[in-house]
Amino acid sequence: MKIAVTAASGGLATATMKHLINEIGTEDLCAVARSPEKVKIPRIETRHGDYQTIKELTKAFSGIDTVVMISAPVGDWDRVTMHQNVITAAKLADVRKLLYTSIIGNGKEKDTWFWQTQQVNRQAEIDLQESGLQWIVARNGLYLEKDLHHIVQAKDIGVYKNIAGNGKTGYITVDELAYATAKLAISDSSNGQILNLVGDTLTQAQLVNLTNQVFGIDIRYESITDEENIAELMKDPNISVRGEKVAKMLAGCFQAVRVGAFDVKSDYKRAAGRAVKPTLQMIQEQRDAMRG
Fold first, then answer.
1. Are 12 and 69 a contacting pair, CB within 8 Å?
2. Is residue 136 over pLDDT 90?
């Protein structure tokens, strides 16, 4: 059984491949990327595959049993068609099984700025379920690393601001997601299922308090307006370089938290074979990684 991971130069793909190597070694693993030279894992086979080109993807999937399809990044391109291209290529290449990394949500996000992005994810899920392939949908929780970075950065002003209010969501690190994704890729026990990969459900104030405890800082949480949240996000150069459209989408994530759209039951143990790490432990691991 050979497994291919798409978008293989990205963070989730890289972490997933590391866990797959622990499970199956390097011989039965293949990294598929638009720019294979950017793949960060040594001694594994790399193949060129662009989500925009069915022909390239079909060639890249030759001899592959299982494809892990990492969701296409948000941007000014047709993500629905990109995901459809991956599915079509997998069928043409006689791939048996496809795992798609989606995003959590219980439908309440319909009235938020995040809805347009979420519709793309849900369409990919529908297309996969109707493909005739064996399939798994792994709906990822919000990346703990991203919000933790913003909270720690806020120590200079002593306040962390967004629009989530008292809404709850389950944060999770990329590495925890990758562990579960690797387990799902190598096992057929969860085929035909949609699984929520999340950690403990917390409010923003609870997340800030845990961060204070681990980092030894003193920050309070403050709820702000939607427009102010966009301005706060645009202060991050990694976000501002992608434009206000992306900042609005990310603010939409906090809107979704606010209305309870991301407060979902975790299927992590069923997916990974073990319980998800407590949020406090994941924050401690991130602190240690930052201090490096």
1. no
2. yes
